[in-house]
Amino acid sequence: MDRSSNFDKIIVIWKLTVIETGVDKLQVLKEALDLHKEKLQLSRQQLLLLEHLESNKDNRKLPIIYAVTPTYWRYVQKAELTRISQTLQLVPNVHWIVIEDSEEKTDLVRNLILESKLIATHLNAKTPPFEQIKDKDPRWKRHRGVEQRNMALAWLRENLQLNKDKGVVYFMDDDNTYNIKLFTEIGKVKKVGVWPVGLVGGLNAETPILDSTTDMAGFAINLDLILAKHEAVFSYAMEKGLQESEFLSYFTTKEELEPLADNCTKVYVWHTRTEKPVVNGIVQGLEV
Ligand code: UDP
Ligand code: MN
């Protein structure tokens, strides 16, 4: 048995001792590992990794953030997903739910999720052809991501249990720009939290306190509410631009919204949009 595969096993056990949330069931194991640290002859890098695990153990007290990301194929997809997955790697206790707008799950997304090492669920839900975005046709804009977000809601409701699983749900589009401070704010959500979103609706920022509309990136909902209100879904019938507010009205009133990000004075997320690149040629034999 070589040293590196032994080390993999140690890491698994060590991780268990760190993330196990029950009464410290694995305390004996943990003490044994600590005691024999020397004999295990770990490299400096391996010791650093263990330290990292140890210092993160308080994270288990944080609520899980379910980050819901619809995504579809275009030339910039891998770039967008690389950016967002590496943002999420800086966030403790996140569960990434990626829903591909496709007939089948693709290797591109599958491999990217694997490589990210994030706790993730990979789903797919294709937007029906009549709802698909027609290039340059603004009338179809409002239908983006509906099917995929509903698929994530269904997954949460099927796989998690009310009063048992705890967390917060955030709709995290693949093309926005996120400050990791946002995730600390999301962790504070009791029912529905709101905050400003930069670069949206023709403004430098939109704040839920002053404006009647809320961007998809500007709120998060406690998992309890998502699990309790089964009827709450996104629909094509919702008014253009009012999809978010209509969805929120299933859970709360405007007065009850919890203003976060320093009472809605800070911008921690931007509704950025990536320019469509002009691609005239394909480089063969290159993984892009
Ligand atoms: N999206 C999708 N299928 C589409 C178009 C968009 O799954 O046909 C996803 C996209 O990847 C993003 C979200 O839906 O995560 C919102 O889309 P987009 O960013 O294009 O919308 P906008 O920024 O204009 O609101
Ligand atoms: Mn977008």
From TrEMBL:
In the UniProt record, which residues carry a glycan? 263
What is the top-level taxon of the source organism?
Eukaryota
- Known cofactor(s): Mn(2+)
Cell location? Golgi apparatus membrane; Membrane
What EC number(s) does the entry state?
2.4.1.135
Can you supply one Gene Ontology CC term for this chain's record? Golgi membrane
Sites marked Interaction with galactose moiety of substrate glycoprotein:
206
For membrane topology, the record states: Single-pass type II membrane protein
Q: Which residues are UDP-alpha-D-glucuronate-binding?
A: 70-72, 101, 144, 149, 173-175, 271-273
Enumerate the catalysed reactions. Answer: 3-O-(beta-D-galactosyl-(1->3)-beta-D-galactosyl-(1->4)-beta-D-xylosyl)-L-seryl-[protein] + UDP-alpha-D-glucuronate = 3-O-(beta-D-GlcA-(1->3)-beta-D-Gal-(1->3)-beta-D-Gal-(1->4)-beta-D-Xyl)-L-seryl-[protein] + UDP + H(+)
Q: Pathway it belongs to? A: Protein modification; protein glycosylation
A single GO molecular function, which one?
metal ion binding
Any Pfam family hit: Glyco_transf_43
Name the residues that span the membrane. none
Signal sequence interval, chain numbering: none
InterPro entries in the cross-refs:
Glyco_trans_43, Nucleotide-diphossugar_trans
One GO biological process term is: chondroitin sulfate proteoglycan biosynthetic process
Q: Does the keyword Transmembrane apply?
A: yes
- Keywords on record: Glycoprotein, Golgi apparatus, Manganese, Membrane, Metal-binding, Signal-anchor, Transferase, Transmembrane, Transmembrane helix
EC category: transferase
Q: Which family does it belong to?
A: Belongs to the glycosyltransferase 43 family.
Annotated protein name in UniProt = Galactosylgalactosylxylosylprotein 3-beta-glucuronosyltransferase
Source organism of this protein record = Rhamnusium bicolor
Q: What are the top taxonomic ranks of the organism? A: Eukaryota, Metazoa, Ecdysozoa, Arthropoda, Hexapoda
